[in-house]
Structure prediction request, 177 residues.
Amino acid sequence: MAKLEASDTVVLGISIDSPAANAAFAKQIGVTFPLLSDMNKEVLTAYQILKPYDVKGGKYQWAQRTTIVVDKDGKIQHVEQGDSAVNPNSAVSVCTGLHKPHGAS
Amino acid sequence: MKRIMICLLLLLAGHFPAAAQEDAIAKTNLKVGDVAPDFTLLSDKWEQVKLSDFRGKKNVILAFYVLAFTGG
Prediction:
């Protein structure tokens, strides 16, 4: 996380959980970055990462595990999906790389 | 016996595409260079967080996860 702060990067977690659930989750895992609630699934829809899950015969639509890096211009610099998106290393290296051109500022 | 085993394996293999579909990645069409769709969402502290508020200031890593209290 220190590496990310040094490269002017913030992390936003996003899921369909309620703020109350996210607050308890943040406390349990000890994260300091915001966990956002996409309860209406608007963002998941806009990012096209709603995924059907089948739980005990019930059908649900939750997030596809995805990591997206957005630069300071609001443009996407990196997209990673599926199991590899659990590991943040490549997203982190993209961000520390993004910092270099701005190093002088 | 060997032939039966092979037939069984082939039969089983026939079932895998369905299982694989279940695990298929909901692949986004967003790609590098696209403008990230803006959004405003409530944080775990009940504060509004707007993606475009970071524009010109911070890079943002969006980490989408399935559900709280689950691995990954």
